[in-house]
Amino acid sequence: MDVEKVFHMTGGVGETSYSRNSSLQKKASDMVKQVILETVEEVCLTTKPKSIGIADLGCSSGPNTLSNIKEIIETSRNNKLLQPAAPTEFRVFLNDLPTNDFNAIFQALPEFRHQLKELGRNHIGHGPSNIYIAAYPGSFYGRLFPDHCLHFIYSSYSLHWLSRIPSGIYDEDGRSMNKANIYISENSPPQVSEAYFEQFQEDFSLFLRSRSEELVTGGKMVLILLGREGLHHADRGNAFFWKILSRSLTNLFTKGEVEKEKLDSYEVHFYAPCKEEIGEIVKRDGCFQVDRLEIFEVEKNIVGNGMSYGRMVAMTVRAIQESMIAHHFGEAIVESLFEEYGRLVDEEMAKEEIRPITFLLVLKKL
């Protein structure tokens, strides 16, 4: 499966869209918002740009996309510490895979510009800021922008997605060695976890090298990605959610809704790194220094409208995975699959809490 051609968040504004099912991601972004704004302030004070280049990598198409950019722009032009050296021009680049629903972002731009204009009437700079926004479709595992044109890069919940399914999980005949699993589990052969880690190393190193060419010296990145706490892959965190999805697919197989061949050949292009793995890759590549590398958990008390936690997780995962699931298994199973998934998540949460952890990584270009 060609990930770049198939994978995308569910577009539009319908009930199952990413736009309406990304509250967990929004909560995480809000939790680290102060770090993001402080990092932008540090970059402005250090590099003193009149025209600042900002990129959101893996921007998707929901309300989170432009809200983060608005906060950054307002903080930059209204911060007294930056006056009179605050940027007067903002170049904003929104990046995601070509299959992303960029039209939804474009349709939101008039209201976004109106809000900035209203807020800008009272800003303390010398005249209005010029704001230019462009979409940059393509994989961020490789070069996207000209040399040294960016000052700040932000990426939220994107870097745990690999550029492809690791080739090392397949045997000589092209069959998966990870049968009955869609990700690393306690019964996966050692070759499977090794292959996933090797693919993450390759992808993350390429990401760092590419961004180091595009950032100015002293430029910074704030990266938010899913991970794991220890060296063991099959924990009761992010990996466990994939285990539940695998169980949900198996349950549909027993009902005759999924073919055995399809079940055995589905894998996710995902990797949850640990803190040590991230730090080692950054150190080895030598392009950036680590300013912060912290673990946090998103609060689970944001369920509303009578929706259970399992149902909310199911809607979130569906908005992210539906494109891949439907491409591989067909659209017919999507509804029943995620109903089963939500039920199993609630069932497991009643037994013992599931603790998916997130990393906050702040890097400075050397």
From TrEMBL:
<keyword id="KW-0460">Magnesium</keyword>
<dbReference type="GO" id="GO:0032259">
    <property type="term" value="P:methylation"/>
</dbReference>
<dbReference type="Pfam" id="PF03492">
    <property type="entry name" value="Methyltransf_7"/>
</dbReference>
<keyword id="KW-0808">Transferase</keyword>
<comment type="similarity">
    <text>Belongs to the methyltransferase superfamily. Type-7 methyltransferase family.</text>
</comment>
<dbReference type="InterPro" id="IPR005299">
    <property type="entry name" value="MeTrfase_7"/>
</dbReference>
<dbReference type="InterPro" id="IPR042086">
    <property type="entry name" value="MeTrfase_capping"/>
</dbReference>
<dbReference type="InterPro" id="IPR029063">
    <property type="entry name" value="SAM-dependent_MTases_sf"/>
</dbReference>
<dbReference type="GO" id="GO:0046872">
    <property type="term" value="F:metal ion binding"/>
</dbReference>
<keyword id="KW-0479">Metal-binding</keyword>
<dbReference type="GO" id="GO:0008168">
    <property type="term" value="F:methyltransferase activity"/>
</dbReference>
<keyword id="KW-0489">Methyltransferase</keyword>
<protein>
    <submittedName>
        <fullName>Jasmonate O-methyltransferase isoform X2</fullName>
    </submittedName>
</protein>
